[in-house]
Amino acid sequence: MSESLVECTYYVESTTTLHAVADELAGEQTSGTFIKIPGETSQLTEKFGGRVLEVSDLGLVPPSLPSRFHVERARAGIVRIGYPAANLGGDLTALLTVIAGNLFELASLSACKVIGLRLPAEFTAAHPGPAYGIDGTRQAIGVTTGPIIGTIVKPNIGLDAEGFRQRVRDLMLADIDFIKDDEVNADPAHLPFAERVRIVAEETDRAAQKTGRRIPYAFNISGPAQDLERKHTLVRDNGGQCVMLPVFHQGISSLEYLRHLGGLQIHAHRAGFPAVSRSGTLGISFGAWQQLLQLAGADHIHVSGLMSKFSEEDDEVAANIRTIHAGVEGLEHRSIPVLSSGQTVLSARATYDAVGSTDVMVLAGGGIIAHPDGAAAGVRSMRQAWQAALDGDDLGKRATSLADSGDTALNAAIAKFGGHK
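RE: above sequence
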């Protein structure tokens, strides 16, 4: 790879020819437009224009998306374009605009999806990456081995101050490693952000006196950009350790800003991202997107979950985890993948078998809070399920063995959640 080029790989469908649409794409996203204009010299194009690096023909297919060019068959292919890094100035928002901007609207494309991204060292060097990542998060939480077991305050929204306090208190005393806001709970009138911060600070202190642990709570910091610093400061000044940002909606620059403020772990939620990733023919792949999140400073990145309630198949989620674990070349730390979306004791073995690593954060909302014997039993059963997976033991046999010893938490969890998978 040229050290001066951002290389982006696309799946495309062309209503003209692959080479023609590749040239159009490279020009549209850099120095060109639909017609040659004065000042567009060969020297300027050579220095600042996009370059077609590779074109692979995949044959004729029915067009995936509508276009003003009505064709019965489109030419599918893989196109790799090189964009001069000098055009971007190290700016992640500019990078997104180039690799994933107007090109989605080109009439000559009946499909266009970013499926690969390679960044030159000079671009990654402009970004600090995660401040904590896997190792720093483990150190801050005090979990050196095994998965980090966490949960989400449920019900997602609607709890009043006392209901919220009781839920947080129960979870803080349940041997949990991590707690977070749900993404839909931002700053509602019935339980404002500042009141949540105050309650969590009080309950963290209270629990620490009993357990000796200060459990991190990720506060949903989303909202007007001008409030980000105020909310970040409020969390930090009240002894908080983590803030959460729905990055797809809030913007990559907001994530960068939180990294700039420093001092807190940053939990990057993926709410909304499947709008541009779920289709195989339009948008941005998770593999490309997570690189930008790591560059911007996300310590934790949501990947959906194996055996989850969402649409991604298990092999896709496993690939999401592996691509985060691979890190971004040039960054000191790697983000930790976050599993959520209907995680229960039944997910542990599938996850470990698929990725072979416990460098994950497992967030089980209902999978812990809905345990028939309470949150503490829910947390214990999740740890037991993961230990069985690590030991290569059958989950049911492990549950029976534990029950014979007087601990029925895992048995109860299997009975509770077995009908929901």
